[in-house]
């Protein structure tokens, strides 16, 4: 219905539908307030899954609803937060579905420096409460990184200062991730650059940096605001690669400075923190090498002197062998008389025992035992018959109560027990036999050690003259024949042992000597 249509008969005003009046109001409001700027405090903020943002703008007396469409939200430099004082630019319209008016926001900015600083303080307190500023979570910087990643603008003076300082101090490989360092694209690009460097695979075609530098020159708070965004602070805090922030001048402070592992006052200072001075490092290495050589030389000298002192305190090797050599000589002197005495005692004992073993006595004893055996045998047959009959009766009575299956089981059980017993006895016998064999081997080695044969192998010899051991020069001159025993045989010297050719005869070492000799 047109607004100037005539009213119906009997009515003073025209009749409108709800949609008609709502549309008329919408046209009036949009025509009157086509483009406005509203200053106020952000109240309730809602972010549904559609991507649009719904909020309230309020002052001390009134509230107006606002909406930011999804496409506009992505372009905003500052995202609205509750409690922020802002200046919103847009157009006022109505929403007929709920009979209310609202502003469709096309741009929103903080209302002055005070609002920006208040927002910054609010974000700082929230991130600090989460522990992102704690010193305990900050990682140490690598002493000499192989690859350094730089997040900055490729066209500014910052990257040239960093590369120049790195080239002067210690040239390293540098990967540059170009980003916008101010404006609406700054925060998302810086966040993507930090996350991208961390996503690189170590040892891959594109090397992963060992250290990151996020750098920008100085500027106003608005210019540096991209580095105060929460997304940048969180990505920097989550970086697995140590990160140096070099944003602005020394007096400029942003949120990334608090969450980074190290803050540099300028981009040039960040390059100085990243690498040491090569010449200073080489000089330090030379000094350390010189100190190491001096300390090594001193240590060797002290140990050499200590070894000499200890060597002077030790006795000579010949002196250490004097005592054992004398004990061996005394034992050798006592061995022959002890053997002769033992043989004599055993010969006397054998004579005493063999004296009672006469043939007549043995024959008489055998006759007595045979007669006794015959008498016992005569009584043994009837007794055996009675015993066999009694045991047969008892066996038959028991056999009637026995069953073959039970007997078989009992036999098998006892056979198993017997086999186990035989196995244990065999094992015990083998262990005992091994023990005896080891003991015999040990005694045999001891015998070889104490025997004079081992002494002969070291160059000694046993000299016998006329069947007796010669212990001196005079006895050797008196002997008509000398027999000299070496380790590999014996040699006879003298008239009795000399053949037609006049050569001395010899005897193998395996032949038994007539007497045991002394060692010389």
TrEMBL record:
Keywords: Cytoplasm, Exonuclease, Hydrolase, Nuclease. It catalyses: Exonucleolytic cleavage in either 5'- to 3'- or 3'- to 5'-direction to yield nucleoside 5'-phosphates. One of its GO terms (cellular component) is exodeoxyribonuclease VII complex. Residues 132-400 form the Exonuclease VII large subunit C-terminal domain. GO terms for biological process: DNA catabolic process. Its main location: cytoplasm. The keyword Ribosomal protein does not apply. Residues 493-520 are annotated as: Disordered. Its EC number is 3.1.11.6. Transmembrane segments: none annotated. InterPro entries: Exonuc_VII_L, Exonuc_VII_lsu_C, OB-fold_nuc-bd_dom. It is an enzyme of class 3 (hydrolase). GO terms for molecular function: exodeoxyribonuclease VII activity; nucleic acid binding. Residues 16-108 form the OB-fold nucleic acid binding domain. It comes from the Bacteria. It is found in: Cytoplasm. Bidirectionally degrades single-stranded DNA into large acid-insoluble oligonucleotides, which are then degraded further into small acid-soluble oligonucleotides. PANTHER family: EXODEOXYRIBONUCLEASE 7 LARGE SUBUNIT. Belongs to the XseA family. HAMAP family: Exonuc_7_L (MF_00378). Heterooligomer composed of large and small subunits. This is Exodeoxyribonuclease 7 large subunit. It comes from Sulfitobacter alexandrii. The gene is xseA.
């Amino acid at each position: 219905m047109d607004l100037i249509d005539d009213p119906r008969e009997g009515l003073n005003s025209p009749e409108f539908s709800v949609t008609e009046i709502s549309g008329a109001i919408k046209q009036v409001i949009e025509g009157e307030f086509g483009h406005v700027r509203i200053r106020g405090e952000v109240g309730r903020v809602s972010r549904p899954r559609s991507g649009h943002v719904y909020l309230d703008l309020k002052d001390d007396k009134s509230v107006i609803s606002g909406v930011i469409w999804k496409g506009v939200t992505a372009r905003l430099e500052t995202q609205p937060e509750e409690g922020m004082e802002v200046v919103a630019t847009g157009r006022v319209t109505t929403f007929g579905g709920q009979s209310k008016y609202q502003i469709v926001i096309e741009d929103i900015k903080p209302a002055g420096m005070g609002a920006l600083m208040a927002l910054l303080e609010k974000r700082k307190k929230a991130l600090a409460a989460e522990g992102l500023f704690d010193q305990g979570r900050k990682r140490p910087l690598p002493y000499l990184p192989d690859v350094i990643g730089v997040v900055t603008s490729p066209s500014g003076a910052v990257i040239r200062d960093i590369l120049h300082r790195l080239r002067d101090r210690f040239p390293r490989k540098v990967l540059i991730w170009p980003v916008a360092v101010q404006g609406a694209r700054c925060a998302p690009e810086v966040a993507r650059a930090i996350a991208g460097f961390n996503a690189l695979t170590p040892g891959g075609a594109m090397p992963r940096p060992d250290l990151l530098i996020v750098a920008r020159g100085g500027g106003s708070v608005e210019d540096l605001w991209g580095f105060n965004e929460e997304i940048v602070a969180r990505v920097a805090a989550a970086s697995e690669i140590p990160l140096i922030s070099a944003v602005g001048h020394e007096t400029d402070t942003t949120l990334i400075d608090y969450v980074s592992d190290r803050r540099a006052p300028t981009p040039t200072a960040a390059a100085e923190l990243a690498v040491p001075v090569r010449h200073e490092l080489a000089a330090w290495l030379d000094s350390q090498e010189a100190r190491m050589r001096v300390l090594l030389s001193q240590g060797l000298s002290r140990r050499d002197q200590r070894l000499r002192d200890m060597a002077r305190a030790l006795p000579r090797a010949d002196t250490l062998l004097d005592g054992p050599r004398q004990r061996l000589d005394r034992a050798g002197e006592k061995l022959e008389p002890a053997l002769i005495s033992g043989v004599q005692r055993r010969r006397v004992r054998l004579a005493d025992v063999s004296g009672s073993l006469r043939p007549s006595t043995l024959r008489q004893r055998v006759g007595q035992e045979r007669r006794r055996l015959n008498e016992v045998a005569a009584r043994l047959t009837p007794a055996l018959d009675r015993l066999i009959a009694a045991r047969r009766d008892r066996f038959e009575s028991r056999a009637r109560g026995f069953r073959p299956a039970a007997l078989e089981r009992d036999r098998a059980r006892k056979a198993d027990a017997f086999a186990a017993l035989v196995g244990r006895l065999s094992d015990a016998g083998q262990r005992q036999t091994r023990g005896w064999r080891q003991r015999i081997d040990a005694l045999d080695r001891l015998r070889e050690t104490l025997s004079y044969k081992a002494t002969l192998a070291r160059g000694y010899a046993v000299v016998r003259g006329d069947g007796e051991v010669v212990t001196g020069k005079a006895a050797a001159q008196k002997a008509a024949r000398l027999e000299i025993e070496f380790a590999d045989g014996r040699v006879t010297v003298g008239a009795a042992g000399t053949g037609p050719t006049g050569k001395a005869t010899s005897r193998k070492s395996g032949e038994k000597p007539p007497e045991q000799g002394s060692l010389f």
